[in-house]
Design goal:
heterodimer; A: Aspartate Aminotransferase, domain 1; 3 domains; 37% helix; globular; B: alpha/beta; Aspartate Aminotransferase, domain 1; 16 helices
């Protein structure tokens, strides 16, 4: 059978075998012991021609409810946002798409400059001094931040708010086990934000860092200014996980004293894509710059004095430090960082603010409409584009009914917070119209009463 | 001839008042922001993002792309990175709304197509590697290594063997191997290679003991050589109570030809962005699924895609000894999907040909270049091989210079100075998707450069001559880091 990705012809093969003075390709595998050579054919899915492949995957894709078939109110860390059309067009340019890590800067200036610009945009949004070129996702970026804080301070205790994304806390737990970091969690109060009295009580001189999400998992806005004072009073580092879009309207964590800001760029031009690939970002202070994980692009000059960009501060990285490394990240999410950079360029200074404002306003409106329908808003704290409501029923059932009405319902908080069984977390982005919000409220009213 | 002018940063193109986006009018009553947010948490100074028109965005990134070299531009024999063709159809598939616009928290019954892809991929990767179960969660190769080592650690601890903390790694290993061990809380023991370029068996025998957690091995190794003593090595490690970890960075050499599971490995990770054509994307995204033998199944990260007898799919979360989550959501699904699309294109017969041709191409190039460059290990190679520039070094030309000179010929150079155990190393991986004509042209360029090293070394030493920038000052970049744009005051 012929394969369109394999250009080897019979003649090519003959010429190469002749040159190598062997009779068959099999002669190149005699170093593999007979007993471990695979006999027969792999029992895997059958190969398909290109048209068959299209039909096959279209059929599979059509089995899935998605944002194009239903109206979506699910967020919880992954959001449906406006992506300018240009993003995909630029991203698919093969020069970016099919390159790898820019090891040879002279022929990688495009990628390097794009990442340098990305780093700048991350710094601008977060209010931090330095940023790296990307991490796998928000959850692993946050976990790496905690490990970096423990490494830097030489302390082994990290305190996390329970209002941090449950999956991020799950990933953190795995990382912490690996590096013998002890985790403690603090609860949230009835307003739906971190319990500051509990935080104050738990903090001690042995604490490396405190992790706060801003806005938190419930969509509520933590008082970073107050938290910063408490955390720094005990000499711990403040790690903030932020939805970058929210920073279009919320004060930058860097301005409020954060030491590390980590999160996911997904809201900026990255498809939900069932949870990945997304793009972790990581930003910190100049002081902690040389402790930062991941690749970093720096500006320099060439032999003629012309501006250029290179991978820099590589002495931090795994290929140099090997067994002394504190992070093992190698491949990252460069292509998604590029997508986020193109999106931030398109939205620009004004668009990011406008989009953030629309999210705030629409979610606020949804809260009001739901309240007017007699639904209870779970928490009282100010929120960004997400909030929890009480549905008094298993959320799974509520969501089934919403689905029948063409709506993807919210996140079932009871999965992670037993005390919040019967509460659902709704996301309202700039893409939801007034009509859709009102339709959701109407359906929920019926379901909850029924 | 090099060079042209400096390219502006997008920030330098910015002018107040320009926009590159279009959002609908706010259709809900606008509330006063001061009534919605606490005053001290409202942003005071907007982020200084660029203000550019849509065409400016397009021109900017188009120009940047012209300053970048990818597989689509030309040959990219970057050893250990498997820079093969990234099929365009996979990009179409990944963008079908039924995949790209799905949310990871949607109920199982609404994403049966997604789960089917994941389940089938798990099955196929298990078969390809000879393993019993697979997790698709790790985001990249290094994440896969760490996941596998965490499972190995959990396995030993579950047996009360907390003292098994040593991971044996050959000195030819990727830097991620010892780094992954470190972040899994394990210690690395490095063992030497022998004159064949293979693991020194005697050193392995001496290194194993009651503290051995695992041997971590890339096979074929980073020299492109198959560890032909693998059966004996597996026996040595297993008898000492350790497990075997397979670094799948070089899996492109063995598809359908040999399986890590049959060689005695207990854990495998694969780099789907290498062997299975996920785009390299300028450094990522990757995907690093991990396959395990039965004994390690109880420790897999959750959730795992599973199939019911009635043919429907669900998330298996009941894995009591699981090491937990290693990434948010379900791994880099978009990359998993592309890999599955590739497997469905090639099938068993195609994948075997992939490895056969990759290996044939590498041996052909190795023999063609062996006269002009020193061949440190004179034996059959697998999908890649290493050369040494020691002879050129005597002429005052470094391997770095040779790499830079290749840029003038329109090639991405091979991996250089790795593995660390070969002086002035060049690691060349042609892949199976290149034509013989391309290989011959590259060989001719390499031979010409070897001649230049003898006749006109300055041409090589001063290379590149044709790129948009000349060699860059990396020392100053690291000493006085400029990591972001600062507008001139």
């Amino acid at each position: 059978m012929k394969y369109r990705y394999l250009p080897m012809t019979d003649q090519d093969q003959r010429e190469m075998l002749e040159f190598l003075e062997i009779n068959s390709v099999d002669d190149l595998f005699t170093d593999i012991p007979e007993e471990v050579r695979f006999q027969g054919e792999l029992q895997i899915s059958q190969s398909l021609s290109e048209p068959e492949l299209v039909t096959y995957f279209q059929t599979l894709a059509q089995k899935n409810v998605n944002f194009s078939t239903h109206v979506n109110f699910l967020g919880a860390g992954v959001y449906q946002h406006y992506t300018p059309s240009v993003v995909n067009h630029m991203l698919l340019r093969g020069e970016f798409f099919t390159a790898y890590t820019p090891y040879q800067p002279e022929i990688s200036q495009g990628e390097l400059q794009a990442i340098f610009e990305f780093q700048t945009m991350v710094c601008e949004l977060t209010g931090m001094e330095v940023a790296n070129s990307s991490m796998y996702d928000g959850a692993t970026s946050l976990a790496e931040a905690a490990m970096m804080a423990a490494g830097h301070t030489g302390k082994k205790k990290v305190i996390t708010s329970r209002a941090v994304h449950p999956e991020a806390r799950g990933v953190l737990k795995t990382y912490a086990y690996g590096q013998s970091v002890q985790l403690q969690e603090i609860g949230y109060n009835s307003e739906g934000v971190t319990d500051l009295a509990a935080l104050e009580a738990m903090l001690d001189e042995e604490t490396a860092a405190v992790i706060i999400q801003y806005p938190n998992f419930f969509g509520n806005i933590e008082d970073l200014a107050a938290i910063e004072k408490i955390v720094h009073a005990k000499g711990a580092l403040l790690i903030v996980s932020s939805n970058p879009l929210a920073l279009g309207i919320l004060e930058a964590p860097g301005k409020l004293g954060a030491d590390i800001v980590a999160g996911d760029m997904q809201p900026f031009g990255i498809a939900a894509s069932f949870g990945g690939p997304h793009c972790g970002y990581f930003a910190t202070t100049s002081k902690l710059m040389r402790k930062m994980p991941g690749r970093i692009v720096g500006q320099t000059k060439d032999e003629n004095g012309k501006r250029g960009f290179v991978l820099t501060l590589q002495a931090r990285e795994q290929h140099i430090r090997r067994e002394k490394a504190t992070s093992n990240i190698c491949s990252n999410q460069a292509l998604l960082a590029l997508a986020a950079a193109i999106t931030m360029s398109s939205l620009g200074k004004q668009g990011v603010q406008e989009m953030a404002m629309m999210n705030l306003q629409k979610a606020h409106y949804a809260k009001q409409v739901l309240q007017a329908k007699g639904l209870e808003i779970t928490f009282t704290a100010p929120s960004f584009n997400e909030f929890a409501i009480k549905v008094n029923k298993p959320v799974v059932e509520v969501n089934k009914k919403l689905l029948e009405k063409g709506i993807i319902g919210g996140y079932d908080l009871g999965q992670d917070y037993p005390e919040l069984a019967g509460h659902t977390l709704l996301a309202v982005t700039e893409l939801r119209t007034k009509k859709e919000i009102e339709a959701l409220a109407n359906e929920l009213e019926v379901i909850v009463r029924g | 001839m090099a060079n042209g002018k400096e390219k502006e940063l997008i920030f330098e193109l910015s002018k107040p008042g320009r926009v590159g986006y279009s959002l609908p009018e706010l259709d809900v009553p606008e509330a006063d922001v001061a009534s919605l947010l606490p005053n001290h948490l409202i942003r005071q100074t907007p982020a200084e993002l660029p203000q550019v028109s849509e065409l400016q965005v397009v021109r900017h990134y188009t120009e940047l792309s012209r300053r970048n070299h990818g597989v689509d531009n030309g040959f990219y024999p970057l050893g250990s990175c498997t820079m093969k063709y990234n099929p365009k159809i996979n990009e179409d598939v990944a963008r079908y709304p039924g995949f790209a616009l799905t949310h990871p928290h949607q109920p199982e019954e609404t994403v049966q197509g997604v789960l089917e892809v994941m389940y089938n991929l798990q099955q196929d990767l298990a078969e390809i590697t000879g393993m019993d179960a697979v997790t698709l969660q790790p985001a990249a190769g290094a994440a896969g290594e760490w996941t596998g080592l965490m499972m190995i650690r959990a396995y030993h601890e579950s047996r009360g063997e907390h003292h098994r903390t040593k991971v044996i790694v050959p000195n030819s290993a990727h830097g991620t191997n010892p780094a992954s061990a470190a972040v899994a809380g394990l210690d690395t023991v490095t063992i030497p290679s022998d004159e064949r370029g293979l693991v020194n068996i005697q050193a392995l025998r001496e290194a194993v003991g009651p503290d051995t957690a695992a041997l971590m091995l890339t096979n074929p190794n980073t020299l492109g050589l198959f560890e032909e003593d693998i059966v004996e090595m597996a026996q040595i490690v297993h008898e000492a109570g350790g497990l075997l970890y397979y670094d799948g960075a070089n899996a492109n050499a063995i598809l359908g030809i040999a399986r890590p599971g049959d060689m005695g490995f207990d854990v495998v990770h694969l780099n789907l962005h290498k062997t299975f054509t996920g785009p390299h994307g300028g450094g990522g995204p990757g995907a690093g699924p991990v396959g395990v033998k039965k004994i390690l199944e109880p420790f897999l990260p959750t959730p795992i895609a599973a199939k019911r007898e009635d043919g429907t799919y669900y998330w298996e979360t009941n894995v009591p000894q699981s090491i937990g989550r290693v990434k948010g959501y379900h791994g880099n699904f978009g990359i998993l999907l592309r890999a599955y699309s590739y497997i469905r294109t090639m099938g068993a017969d195609g994948l075997k040909k992939v490895s056969q041709y990759a290996v044939l191409n590498a041996n052909y190039m190795m023999r063609k270049l062996a006269g002009a460059y020193q061949l440190p290990f004179d034996r059959v190679c697998k999908h890649e091989f290493v050369l040494s520039g020691v002879n050129q070094k005597k002429l005052g030309v470094r391997t770095l210079d040779i790499a830079k000179r290749l840029l003038d010929f329109g090639y991405h150079p091979p991996t250089i100075y790795f593995p660390l155990i070969v002086d002035e190393c060049l690691m060349i991986e042609p892949t199976e998707t290149e034509t013989k004509e391309t290989l011959d042209e590259f060989i001719a360029a390499m031979l010409q450069i070897a001649r230049e090293c003898e006749e006109t070394p300055e041409i090589v030493q001063e290379a590149p001559h044709t790129t948009v920038v000349k060699r860059l000052d990396e020392a100053t970049a690291a000493r006085k880091p400029i990591l972001r744009y600062q507008p001139e005051a």
